[in-house]
Structure to design on (70 residues):
C-alpha cells in the first residue's frame, strides 16, 4: 500500500549533490541523495504529469459544457 506524503525537503550537501527528505503521515522519513541531473529529471516528470492532468481536466470541462442554442 502506498504511503501518503506529509512533507518533504531538499537540501544541498557539501559534495554538490542534494538530499531529499520524504516524510509520511506516520512521521517516518526516508532520505535519498540525488544529483542535480536527477532532480532535474524528477522536475520534468512532475511537470509532465501535471500538464497531462491539466489537459485532461480542461478537456473534461469542455465536454461538460452544453452547446448554446442560436
Amino acid at each position: 500500500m502506498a504511503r501518503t506524503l506529509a512533507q518533504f525537503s531538499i537540501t544541498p550537501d557539501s559534495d554538490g549533490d542534494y538530499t531529499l527528505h520524504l516524510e509520511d503521515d506516520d512521521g517516518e522519513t526516508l532520505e535519498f541523495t540525488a544529483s542535480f541531473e536527477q532532480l532535474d529529471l524528477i522536475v520534468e516528470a512532475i511537470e509532465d504529469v501535471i500538464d497531462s492532468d491539466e489537459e485532461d481536466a480542461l478537456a473534461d470541462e469542455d465536454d461538460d459544457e452544453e452547446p448554446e442554442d442560436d
